[in-house]
Structures are given as structure tokens and as C-alpha cells.
């Protein structure tokens, strides 16, 4: 418990530092978001609205400390302000609308790539020196290709030339967002290509470490003893070697779930997918301070929570951690 209490205190301090940086960084960026908003309406807003918009977005002449206090008070109420990009929609609504798309796409893709990469790594490590080792250069080749470049190739071949999948978006524009079969089938077709891009590009990140840990674990005494006792190879591979070799991968997977909220920014931009990564990109190019702050804040807290869960999982899986603590 003392170990977990120290870790929890560390995450509390980190969360406060992240809150402060989240407040400061957008305000240190060059440019005037209010003028950018006025220019987007192309003269349809009265120039006298500048003062009202400046006060509404909290960018008036108040001191930085006063703005910081207002920022913290608003956060305790769950108020992230209004989005410049999707004005006058609240930031919380914009984030919720795009977050679900990213969780489904990137979350499912992360789980699939972890499962496939880990299973292939277990088998490749157990059968080292055989044809299974050919998986290493193949998967490494695909992982070395940048996400956006691989996405463009897949988009050009499967959507542009073969016309097997839609070119862009999250669903067909004439459908309403609901749980009807036409919408779900359309959303699935639109998610196949970006999901495939993420899975293929990230499998090597799970396969290679798992394979190397399997090779290292197989020389440990308890694995050698299990083989000497005449246990079946499958039981030795799964219950003895893989069970201990998977510990680092499980911890890494738990932390990677925290980054799911951040979305695969480049992949979502290439496929024009309506996820949080694409929304963040629009917020940056439009100098949308409230939306950037809201997204960064959500990402930060989810990553910190995922790291804390990783500590809990590791303590639960590895008794040595509890003894050392």
C-alpha cells in the first residue's frame, strides 16, 4: 500500500503540472483566435462583437493569475468553454461527439494488434530458428513505414483503384447517427481501412518484444524444470514461459490504452475520420484554445489513469514488485 500511495501522490502532482501547462501553452502561442473566428465568418459578424467574444472566451485584459483561477474553477464545474472552430457548440459536446469514434476505431485496433502481435511473438519465440522468424523482417518492414504514407497507399489501392471501401469520412453522409443496421454497416466499412492501417503498422511493436522475452524466459530454471518433468510442450509454452514473458507486454498494453484517447492523429487526418485526432488538428489550425485545452486535458488524465492502472496490474501479476515495495 505504501508503494501505491507514493505512486498516487506522484500522479496527483503530475496532474496539477499538466493542468498548469495546459493553461499556459495555448496562451503563449502566437495569433489572435478571436480575429481568426471573425475572419471565418467573412464579415457576417459585426466588428463590435470582438469585445464580447474576447470576454466570452476569457481572453480579456485580466491578469494571467486571474484567468488561471477562473480556468480551475470552470474545470471543477466541467465547463471547458465554447469552441472557436464549431462555434457556438460547447467544447464538451465536441469532444464527446468525436471521442466515441476514436475509442471504437483506435481502441479496437489496439486490442487486435496486441492480441495478434503477442500470440505471434509467443509462437515465434517458442519456435525460434524456424520459419516463424520470417515474421520479424516482414512486420518490421510495415512498422517502419509512416502511418500517413501507408494509409495513403492503402487508400489509393483499395479505395481509389479497386473501389472496395469508401474514400473518407466515418459513415455515409445521407445517414443519421443511430444504431440502425444501415448506419452501423456504413460505419464499419469506413473504419476498416484506418483500422487495418493501425493494426498492420503496430503489430511489430508487440511481436518483437514478446518474442525476445520468450527466448530469454525459456532459459530460466523453472521452464527447464517443467520440460524435464515431461509436461506437454503446449503447457510449458503457455503456463510457464508465456505467463512470465508477457508481464512487460501487459504493462505496456495498459499504458497504450491511455493513448487511445489521443487517437491516431495522422491516420484520422488521412482518412478524414471524425475522431478526436482529426478534431485536435482542426483546433490547432484554427487556434481554438478552449478545444485544444479540453482535448489535451482529457488525454493527459486518461494517460495518467492508464499508467496508474498499469502499476496496479504489475503489482498484481508480479509478486516480486510487492516484496520490493
Automatic annotation (TrEMBL):
It is a multi-pass membrane protein. The keyword Metal-binding does not apply. InterPro entries: MetI-like (IPR000515), MetI-like_sf (IPR035906). Its main location: membrane. One of its GO terms (biological process) is transmembrane transport. Residues 99-310 form the ABC transmembrane type-1 domain. The chain crosses the membrane at residues 7-25, 99-123, 135-158, 187-208, 245-271, 291-317. One of its GO terms (cellular component) is plasma membrane. It is found in: Cell membrane; Membrane. Keywords: Membrane, Transmembrane, Transmembrane helix, Transport. The keyword Transmembrane helix applies. Pfam families: BPD_transp_1 (PF00528). Belongs to the binding-protein-dependent transport system permease family. This is Peptide/nickel transport system permease protein. It comes from Kribbella antiqua.
